[in-house]
Design goal:
Blueprint: H1 3-22, H2 27-44, H3 53-66, H4 69-86, H5 111-120, H6 124-136, H7 140-144, E1 151-152, E2 157-160, E3 169-172, H8 175-185, H9 208-221, H10 232-243, H11 248-255, H12 260-264, H13 271-286
Antiparallel strand pairs: 1-2, 2-3
Helix pairs in contact: 1-2, 1-4, 2-4, 5-6, 6-8, 6-10
C-alpha cells in the first residue's frame, strides 16, 4: 500500500475494531473478524473499501484452496460485518460463499480407555488436567482458566466463568477430582491459577500445545488408535452420562449448551442407542423370507 492507502486502511481498521466492541462481540470474535480484514487487505495490498465483487470472488476462490472451510466462513462473516457496520454497504457477494454442511461424529473412548489413558499419563499436571476435563465435561479453555476461587469444597461445585457465549455455570465437583486438584495445587501453590504454566509462564495457564502433545503421546503409548483431542474428553463425559441414564435437559445445563438440539447429538454416540439400532436392523434382516442356500 502507498502512504495514503495505508492511512485509509488504518482508519477503517480502527473503526472496525470500535464497531466490534460496540456490538459486544467476544474477544475471540473480535480477533477473528479483524484478522479477516487484515488478510484480504494484505492479499490485494490495498485498502479493503476499494474492493470489487470480482476481487471478492478471486479472494475467496484462493482462500478455499489454502484454508479450511471454517476459516472461509469466519472470513465471510467478518467481512460482512465490516461492509455493513464500517463501510455502510451491502456485501452483494455474500450469498455465493456457502461452506458445505459437514457433520462428523467424534471418536469416543470407553471408560476403560479413559482410565488407561489417565493412568498412563507421565506428568502429574497433565494427568490431573485430563481427569478434570473428563470428570466435569469442561472445554479446554475452561479447564485452563480455573482458579482457586472457582472451587467450592463446601457445596462441591466448580464455578465456570465467562465460558462460551459469555455464560457462567456451576458444575458438580467429584470428590476424586477435588482430591486430585488439591494434590496438584500443593506442587506449585499458585495464588490464583490451578493449572499455571512453568517457569516464566507461571502467571499464565499451561500451554495448550503441551497439553495436545501430551494427549497424543499417551494415546500412542496406550495403543489407542482414535482421533482424540483434549476436547474429546468433554464428548466422552456427555456420552457416558447419557449411557448412565442422565436426562438430556440436565446434561444440557452441565455442558452449558444454549440449545437442547446441540446436546441431543450425543444420543447417537451412546452404545445403548447403537446397540438398539443393531438389534432392530438384525430383526429386519431376519424377517426376510429368502429361498436360497449359501455355501
Amino acid at each position: 500500500m502507498n502512504h495514503s492507502q495505508q492511512q485509509r486502511f488504518n482508519f477503517l481498521y480502527e473503526q472496525h475494531l470500535i464497531n466490534l466492541r460496540l456490538q459486544g462481540k467476544r474477544p475471540a470474535t473480535i480477533d477473528a473478524y479483524s484478522r479477516a480484514v487484515r488478510r484480504i487487505s494484505t492479499y490485494f495490498d490495498k485498502s479493503p473499501d476499494g474492493l470489487t465483487t470480482a476481487n471478492l470472488k478471486d479472494y475467496f476462490n484462493s482462500l478455499i484452496q489454502t484454508h479450511s472451510w471454517s476459516t472461509v466462513k469466519i472470513d465471510r462473516n467478518g467481512l460482512q460485518f465490516f461492509y455493513r457496520y464500517t463501510l455502510d454497504k451491502q456485501w452483494e457477494w455474500l450469498s455465493i460463499v456457502k461452506p458445505p454442511q459437514v457433520k462428523r461424529l467424534p471418536d469416543i473412548l470407553t471408560p476403560a480407555q479413559i482410565s488407561k489413558m489417565i493412568s498412563a499419563t507421565k506428568k502429574q499436571r497433565y494427568q490431573v488436567f485430563f481427569l478434570t476435563l473428563y470428570s466435569m465435561g469442561l472445554r479446554l479453555s475452561e479447564g485452563l482458566n480455573l482458579t482457586v476461587h472457582d472451587i467450592d469444597s463446601q457445596t462441591m461445585q466448580v464455578h465456570i466463568r465467562d465460558a462460551k457465549g459469555g455464560k457462567d455455570r456451576l458444575v458438580p465437583l467429584p470428590k476424586r477430582t477435588l482430591h486430585a486438584l488439591r494434590c496438584h495445587w500443593q506442587t506449585h501453590h499458585h495464588a490464583r491459577l490451578i493449572f499455571p504454566g512453568l517457569g516464566n509462564g507461571m502467571n499464565s495457564p499451561m500451554d495448550k500445545g503441551g497439553i495436545q502433545k501430551a494427549i497424543k503421546q499417551v494415546l500412542r503409548d496406550c495403543h489407542i488408535n482414535k482421533l482424540v483431542s483434549p476436547h474429546s474428553l468433554r464428548h466422552c463425559f456427555a456420552t457416558h452420562l447419557l449411557e448412565g441414564g442422565l436426562d438430556l435437559r440436565s446434561l444440557q445445563v452441565l455442558l452449558g449448551h444454549a440449545s437442547l438440539n446441540t446436546t441431543a447429538r450425543y444420543t447417537q454416540l451412546t452404545q445403548l442407542k447403537q446397540r438398539d439400532a443393531a438389534v432392530a436392523i438384525n430383526q429386519l434382516a431376519d424377517k426376510l423370507a429368502l429361498d436360497w442356500s449359501l455355501a
